[in-house]
Amino acid sequence: MTDLPTVIGIAAVTGLVTGLGALPVFVRARVSHRTYDAALGLAAGLMVAASVFGLILPGTEEGSLTAVLFGLLVGGFGLLVGNRLIPHLHARYRGWRAEGGATRADVAGMAGTGGAAEDGPRENGDSTATIDATLRRALLVGGAITLHNAPEGLAIGVAFASGLEEVALVLAIVIGLQNVPDGFAFAIPMAETGMSNLRVLAYTALSGTVPQVIAATIGFSLVSLSTGLFPAAAGFAAGAMLAVVFRELVPSSHGHGYADAATAAFLGGFVLLVVVDAVVTV
User: Fold this and answer.
1) Contacts of 238 (CB under 8 A, 6+ apart)
2) DSSP 8-class letter at 116
3) How far from the centroid of its chain's Cα atoms is residue 63's Cα?
4) Which membrane topology term applies here (predicted)?
5) 18 contacts 184 by C-beta, under 8 angstroms
6) Domain limits, the chain
7) Per-residue confidence at 91, pLDDT binned at 50, 70, 90?
8) DSSP category for residue 93
9) Biggest alpha carbon–alpha carbon distance for the chain
10) Residue 152: what are its φ and ψ, rounded to 5°?
């Protein structure tokens, strides 16, 4: 069985790949809304396929269908509860949306992200307020990132801990592929705040790496204690990932006139996962 340091390393690599999605900000080319929506559709297709072929089906093969479905419902509803209770800001095409207790003022404050250094000297009270506002925004964005990326890291850790190296490898590859458009979706509105390119790249890479490494460690550690937990744990990760897709990715990629592009990309992502799964498991 793969050891924990290796799992952490693999989860870190898949998370760092998120940074590739930020590369378009370096050329500062205007990204079309169609491209943005298609990227979200691609990520959604990969995540749905990974949930089904990488988690649900292996879970039913290793244990009972009841355990998998129980875990799926707990994971899915758990994500919805967390989305409701944890204040966070979701990145949107050239904008942000507040949820879970975050306010419109928090959204408006994102327009000033990265700009404090260029504003010149401030009074001490203003400086403290600026630091507090920046920290709050960082925590709000971090809450959304954790809700989105933690299930993916959990899936990697659970699969490796269960001795399903081929399944875990497929999941890691697919999650890495999915992280590129995911990073793209995160970086575009972040870049619109005026933040420097290097900071956008660093934050985007960290947005995938930190929650995925932590979640992979937790998933690996828990299932290592008892391999019988794999079916429920796999279902839990799949449920959370599916909830992210239908709660965030699908709504964000539709309603702007480019639903066809997003749907075509979704189908492409789903097929891509099937091809990767077939190649890796041969």
Assistant:
1) 51, 52, 55, 56, 59, 68, 71, 72, 75, 155
2) G
3) 27
4) Multi-pass membrane protein
5) no
6) 4-24+31-280
7) low
8) T
9) 65
10) -70, -45
Q: Which token pair is 187?
A: 């970086």
The amino acid sitting at 203 is: Y
| Per-residue model confidence (pLDDT) at position 89 | 67
SS3 of 89, please? strand
- For residue 113, give the amino acid letter: T
The Cα 61–Cα 16 span in angstroms is 31
Task: Look at residue 170 and tell me whether its pLDDT is greater than 90.
Answer: no
Query: For residue 67, which phi and psi values (nearest 5 degrees)?
Result: -65, -40
- List of E strands, 25-136: 88-92, 95-99
Question: Which residue type is seen at 163?
Answer: G
Burial of residue 176 (number of CB atoms within 10 Å: 0-12, 13-18, 19+) = buried
Question: Higher-confidence residue: 4 or 106?
Answer: 4
pTM of the model: 0.74
With beta carbons less than 8 A apart as the criterion, state whether 241 and 152 touch. yes
Amino acid making up residue 130: T
Nearest to 191 by CA among 21, 8, 16: 21
For residue 91, what is the DSSP state?
A: E
Mean pLDDT to the nearest integer, 80-97: 72
The DSSP code sequence of 97-124 is EEETT--HHHHHHGGGTT-GGGG----H
Judged by DSSP in three states, 90 sits in: strand
- Structure token pair of residue 51: 């949930």
Are the C-beta atoms of residues 164 and 219 closer than 8 Å to each other? no
The amino acid occupying position 197 is N
Closest CA to 202 of 30, 25, 33, 35: 25
d(CA 14, CA 282): 22
